[in-house]
Amino acid sequence: MTDIWNQVDDYVTRTVVHPDEALRQAVATTEEAGMPAIAVSAPQGKLLQLLAGMVGARRILEIGTLGGYSTIWLARALPPEGKLISLEVSERHAQVARANLEEAGVADRVEVRVGPALETLPTLAGEQFDLVFIDADKVNIPQYFDWSVRLSRPGTAIVVDNVVRNGGLVEGPATDPNVSGVRALHEQLARRSDVAATTIQTVGSKGYDGFTLAIVGG
Beta strand 207-216 with 152-161: parallel, antiparallel or unpaired? Predict the structure, then answer.
């Protein structure tokens, strides 16, 4: 099945997504730097851009920058005065991302902050974001989500990537810390009354996975 998944992703990318040279170069630069190929796919990047536009995002928070591929998609949804803050634990990754953001022409509206996200997030206390994209280590996903809600307003959209884990979300004991993290996120969501959420399974060039979409209530 993975072959047909890849073919569909390629077809969708050619027909409706249309990534430009800056995005293709960001992928190439990230690979050349020896960074893991774990960025979102082009159709997923376009989805993030559309979601940001749908909520009228003026301020976006991203947790996990990597090479800046998803950052470019999100930043392009912002108005000229908009701002995106992206949190990245690795200085090396941040350097690659900044170069890619500059090449894509969005560096003026993006700030990449380096350090463990659980140390950086408290420095944002008092700020509000219209959209949050969480694509970082899964062990700390519940804490990242909790902080995201704190930094939100009613109507803020929160997207959490890679939460199905090839079925690990429900299959077998959670011996993998990443699986434990996404299960803990769903258990947290089951208890919360201040957000409405769903999780959607996905297949494609990134394999079998899924994302959680949550909207913060009033």
Answer: antiparallel
What is the average per-residue pLDDT within 133-146? 97
CA distance 130 to 155: 7
Residue 73 corresponds to which tokens in the numbers above? 């998609």
Number of H helices, E strands in the chain: 8, 7
Q: What angle do CA 206, 71, 152 make, to 5 degrees?
A: 105
In whole angstroms, give the CA distance from residue 169 to residue 208: 11
Q: Other C-beta atoms within 10 Å of 93: how many? A: 21
137 and 36 in contact (C-beta within 8 Å)?
no
The CATH class for the domain spanning 2-216 reads alpha beta
* Averaged pLDDT, 184-191: 97
Residue linked to tokens 């949550």: 214
Give 17's contacts (C-beta < 8 A, 6+ positions apart): 42, 43, 45, 46
Residue 144 token pair:
């990242």
Residue type, 16: V
| Paired tokens of 60 | 């976006």
Residue type, 203: V
- Residues with Cβ within 8 Å of residue 11, at least 6 apart in sequence: none
- What confidence tens digit (pLDDT) does each residue in 66-118 have? 999 999 999 999 999 999 999 999 999 999 999 999 999 999 999 999 999 99
